[in-house]
Design goal:
Elements (H helix, E strand, L loop, with lengths): L1 E5 L6 E6 L18 E6 L3 H12 L6 E6 L8 H13 L7 E6 L1 H13 L5 E6 L2 H7 L4 E6 L2 E8 L5 E4 L8 H18 L1 H9 L1 H5 L3 H21 L14 H11 L6 H18 L5 H13 L11 H9 L10 E7 L2 E6 L2 H10 L4
Parallel strand pairs: 2-9, 3-4, 3-5, 5-6
Antiparallel strand pairs: 1-2, 7-8, 10-11
Helix pairs in contact: 4-5, 4-8, 5-6, 5-8, 5-10, 9-10, 9-12, 10-11, 10-13
């Protein structure tokens, strides 16, 4: 097992990465002072891992309940968030209740938002079971739900007590979900570590085969990168926004297609292709670097051809983005492979990218 620390002063917490961690009660020691424990999971993950986690948590001698939500991005909304609150209020949860998010990014985001909101804030633990959640969404305290007009536009910053990433849970992931998670792995290399991107490029087959050693390195390095950025900029006032490379275009794809049609990682992978093209048009990276990054994304079995919504629709969707300021969309761009920046871009240049990539 490897353990990293997200350094946020009094809100610091560990990220544990290893195998069979769900069975290790000492990693859940934050539950010692809980009055009760609620495991929030979904219909796919519950039969796989929930009972094992219950067995582990029984060692703390606290009442344990499960809240099982429907599975999928389309359920990341007010209606299903309300199911968490319904269960907490029905069974007498209080300010010492501990929530545990057992699942992928949707479960992590919704559980975290419920924890941030219930009684104005209770504690929670992240137990991410998808690659995307292990390398990205479980770390950093971003929580929330989607709105029909924009992804993740309603939420709160609320840091977990711990992130417990059990690599064995990745063995049950469908191939499509695994590839979606690899998009965020590629992103971390593209924006922050050129040598890591070289390693990803050389180990694509091992990553797609979910080789344990390769996955351990991918998750560890991704979490190192993200935790360093979050520690420097918890609430996305500056450098943290660079973690959204590919996301402005990607969120537009998700919203335009209807949440759940494309997985988040698929949309981000395609969004990175558009973001790289835009970076090249601004003279930041070369066309050869755009083509290389595109090939790496393709090697992860991710789409690189954006849906053809038309330029006006893309521009409309991208206006509803957390990086937009005063009506001006700000894009994450590659200054070079391994270094990102964020800035506004003339609409004319964005339209060139949309036309050249077939999205317009």
């Amino acid at each position: 097992m490897k353990t990293l620390e997200v350094d946020l002063g009094s809100r610091s917490y560990p990220i544990h990465i290893g195998t069979d961690l769900i069975d290790q009660a000492e990693l859940f020691n934050a539950c010692e002072k809980a009055s009760s424990i609620y495991i929030v999971t979904n219909t796919t993950v519950e039969p796989l891992y929930a009972n094992r986690l219950v067995s582990t948590l029984e060692k703390f001698g606290k009442p344990i309940r499960k809240i099982v939500l429907p599975d999928g991005e389309s359920y990341k909304d007010w209606k299903n968030l309300q199911l968490i609150f319904d269960a907490l209020l029905t069974h007498g949860a209080d300010r010492k209740t501990m929530l545990i998010a057992l699942g992928g990014g949707v479960i992590g985001d919704m559980t975290g938002f419920a924890a941030a909101s219930f009684m104005r804030g209770i504690r929670f633990i992240q137990v991410p079971t998808t690659l995307l959640a292990q390398v990205d969404s479980s770390v950093g305290g971003k929580t929330g739900i989607n709105h029909p007009l924009g992804k993740n536009m309603i939420g709160a910053f609320h840091q977990p007590e711990a992130v417990i990433a059990d690599l064995n849970t990745l063995k049950t992931l469908p191939a499509r979900e695994l590839s979606a998670g690899l998009a965020e792995v590629v992103k971390h290399g593209a924006i922050a570590d050129a040598q890591f991107l070289n390693w990803i490029e050389a180990n694509a087959k091992e990553l797609l085969a979910c080789d344990t050693e390769a996955m351990a390195h991918a998750v560890l390095r991704s979490c190192e990168i993200k935790s360093a950025v979050v520690s420097a900029d918890e609430r996305e006032g500056g450098v943290r926004a660079t973690l959204n490379f590919g996301h402005t275009f990607g969120h537009a794809i998700e919203a335009g297609m209807g949440y759940g049609e494309w997985l988040h990682g698929e949309a981000v992978g395609c969004g990175m292709v558009l973001g790289a093209d835009l970076s090249q048009r601004l003279g930041k990276i070369t066309r050869a670097e755009v083509e290389r990054l595109t090939k790496i994304i393709q090697s992860m079995n991710l789409p690189t051809q954006a849906p053809k919504f038309g330029a006006p629709r893309y521009m409309e969707l991208m206006q509803v983005d957390k990086k937009t300021e005063g009506g001006t969309i700000r894009y994450v761009l590659l200054e070079q492979i391994g270094k990102a920046t964020i800035q506004s871009v003339p609409d004319a240049t964005v339209l060139e990218t949309l036309a050249a990539t077939g999205a317009a």
